[in-house]
Amino acid sequence: MNTNRLLFSIISCLLILPAYSQKVYKPSWESLAEHDEAPEWFQNAKLGIYFHWGVYSVPAFGNEWYPSRMHFENDKVAQHHREKYGDPAEFGYHDFVPMFKAEHFNAEEWADLFKKAGARFAGPVAEHHDGFAMWASEATPWNAADKGPMRDITGELEKAIRAHDMKFITTFHHARNLQRYRDQPDETKFRNSHYPYIAGTPPTSDDSELKYLYGNLPKDQWLEEVWFGKLKEVIDQYHPDIMWFDSWLDQIPEEYRQKFSAYYLNEAQKRDQEVVIVRKQDDLPLSMSVDDLEKSRKNELTEESWMTDETISKGSWCYTEDLQIKPAADVLHVLIDIVSKNGVLLLNISPKADGTIPEDQREVLLAIGNWLDKYGESIYNTRPWYTFGEGPTKEPEGHFKNHHEFLKVKYSNQDYRYTTQGSTIYASVLGMPTPSEPIKFTAFAQGKMPAGTEILNVSMLGIDTNLEWVWEKDGLAVTLPQAKVDDMAVVFRVETSRGSATGEGQ
To answer: The domain 29-378 is classified under which CATH number: 3.20.20.80, 2.60.40.1120, 3.90.25.10, 3.90.1150.10?
Structure first.
């Protein structure tokens, strides 16, 4: 072999080497466990925004479960539906679709708002339990590009969100859409299907189109063409960075859960994309997915990253005419608490059917974003300290089943939360302490802190005033400035001689 041919062979081998060395995931939990379930960018992001927005936003009554509850005679949603629209056998959920016009929807304006709110990732509920796809779909005729808005909502959002330098998330709730029952009008028997199978109503229809909306298909066909087919479409068309699943994923056969996971991860590999799969309950192994806690959160620090999906409102996840919105401080305190325990917040908002985001929700988002503009170094790219915090307010035990108790939790300026970045420790006070009065952080007690740590300086984010502080045996005592700094939360920066005990943000 001459020198030129040898050189050509070596270069050829180097060029094709990546194709041979690229990891290929097999549809087995053992193979999928090799996936890094929480890459650095996800751990650094801390805040994402998504939204329950779809056909169920049109009636704007009850909540996003309107499509199901409208069929049960004794339910207030069913009573409302009969009074306003008529018998559900005559005016079905599909009749709302032409009314979902999204005429004022502007993906660029939404993405700009999410960016100003401090989100590092954002995206839609791609499909809720109701069977309506919010993207241009070939898997179902019931999609936003062919009916209702007549626009590729997900596609427009994906472009706008990425243009604002945010990662893209799509969430899926459609595991419950399959019609799993026949001739069982007792509502307690419909737990695993969204639409009840009541004779004479649209969910029982064999109409070639309606059966795709109401999940009235043979199970094997539905699993392949609808459940997996829709996920494959979104992966192929929009390449989401996070795919998040609601409950009832346990109703999907294990082989299909593995098939989806392998397909998603392998497609991401081709794009050199670090992606995240988020699940609830025990529906996927935590060796390859991130745990999600709905309307609840952990009351202890964990080694593994996790997520809370929480809504900006006190009730429905989708827009309703009587929707009550939480104060910005309450939402911010939840974010700070979650981050201190190694979590990430996925915050839901509730746009109107016409595509507008109500002003009260916008105000909360912008208030949080304004706070993060000033004090975000204590949130983004941080990692937990040896303890998450201190103070009198404790979160309840349990998760979603106890979410009403979580809603009652109110933090005060006696509650402190800690994060770290490099050798800096951030102490966040959940409220404005009384000016000119001393405050003591007992987590800095000399016998509690990681061995070898020395405090070098203490300052307060947002002001240039030098603080008086004393490192005592029982904690770090700081004398507050005379002026108010921020009513929602204030942050102290504690510079030390060593890094975090549990890792450093990148």
So the answer is: 3.20.20.80
Bridge partners, residue 119, by sequence: none
The b-or-e profile of 306-316 (16+ CB within 10 A means b, else e) is: bbbbbbbbeeb
Sheet with strand 438-441: strands edge to edge: 438-441, 475-479, 468-472
In this structure, are residues 316 and 352 in contact, taking their beta carbons and an 8 Å threshold?
Answer: no
Q: Specify whether the CB–CB gap between 215 and 96 falls below 8 A.
A: no
Domain with CATH 3.20.20.80 in the chain: 29-378
Residue 413: alpha-carbon gap to chain centroid: 27
Contact call for residues 195 and 67 (beta carbons, < 8 A): yes
Q: Is 289 exposed, middle or buried (0-12, 13-18, 19+ CB in 10 A)?
A: buried
Q: How many CB atoms lie within 10 A of CB 210?
A: 19
**Model confidence pLDDT, tens digit, residues 385-418:** 999 999 999 988 877 777 888 888 899 999 999 9
Copy the structure tokens of residue 155: 């596609």
CATH 2.60.40.1180-classified regions of the chain: 389-496
- The predicted-structure confidence for 29-82, as pLDDT tens digits, reads as follows 999 999 999 999 999 999 999 999 999 999 999 999 999 999 999 999 999 999
Q: What is the mean pLDDT of residues 6-13?
A: 49
Superfamily of domain 389-496 in the CATH hierarchy: Golgi alpha-mannosidase II (2.60.40.1180)
The reported pTM is 0.93
What tokens does 172 get? 């899926």
CB 62 within 8 A of CB 323: no
Cα three-residue angle 137-70-228, rounded to 5 degrees:
25
pLDDT, tens only, 197-229: 988 999 999 999 999 999 999 999 999 999 999
Instruction: Determine the Cα–Cα distance for residues 144 and 55; give it in Å rounded to an integer.
Output: 10
The predicted model gives 173-178 an average pLDDT of: 97
| Residue in the structure block whose two tokens are 């801390």 | 46
Least confident of 182-186, 202-206, 257-261, 292-296: 182-186
The pLDDT score that the predictor gives to residue 398 is 77
Residue 467 structure tokens: 């603080």
Q: Residue 164 in contact with residue 173, Cβ under 8 Å?
A: no
179: left (phi over 0), alpha (psi -120 to 50) or beta: beta
Beta-sheet pairing, 438-441 with 490-496: unpaired
